[in-house]
Amino acid sequence: MILLVPIGTGALACLVFVIISKARLQPPQLYRSWLILVAFLSQWLVFYLPGGGIHLPDDLAAVILVGSMTALLLFVASNHKLFAILLLGLGLVLNLIVITLNGGGMPISPETLANLLPGLDPSILELGARLGAGKDIVLTKADTILWELSDRFVLPAWMPFRVAFSLGDVFIACGGFLLPWAGVASRKVEKR
Amino acid sequence: MKQHISFFLFQANQFKQAYMPWIIFFLTITMLVIGSGAPDDGGGAGCPSCPWHSI
Q: Which residue among B26, B35, B45 sits closest to A117, beta carbon to beta carbon?
């Protein structure tokens, strides 16, 4: 849910800009969009469908996650001329690197989880296992390769969402904010 | 009746030409952003009423 916020705010800001500046709006041409559909559907079945991937072996979930993110990377490579896609692609690469190096899941440390969920009992966490049916795996900071790229940031307590996120997620959010702007044509509407 | 159907089809076509590219574009970038990111809300505990856990 949290990653939909930058797209929404970006679209809103873009709309206000277009109304004020009278610029033209035209959706940009995206190539190989089917890769996104394939990647998203496979992730949806495994990670987001309620009860969908909870019984799936961790190894298979890891393969699906890395495979789907590689498909998204191919899409980014096909559309690299758009700056927003490039920025998002940078975040995707950072996430893909840390996920691949740590066994196919985004590492999250017990300390970050305790920060995220103050009432959590650390004894129920199984190190090296997936966290629920999500993309994360629980790993200590010492056991994490490239810990700097893992889910180590937590939103401030005053924000309505309690979410841990990575550096790659920050770039993805920035790309998501800028993507609607890719539809703004530079030439203004000529007055008749 | 035939006129009504023609008018409806014309309106539907106008809507399709004006908005469908945008609907497809936003669906595409939404799927791209969700698929690329990996934020975690602690298995839904951070947002218990939201069916889109961890997105």
A: B45
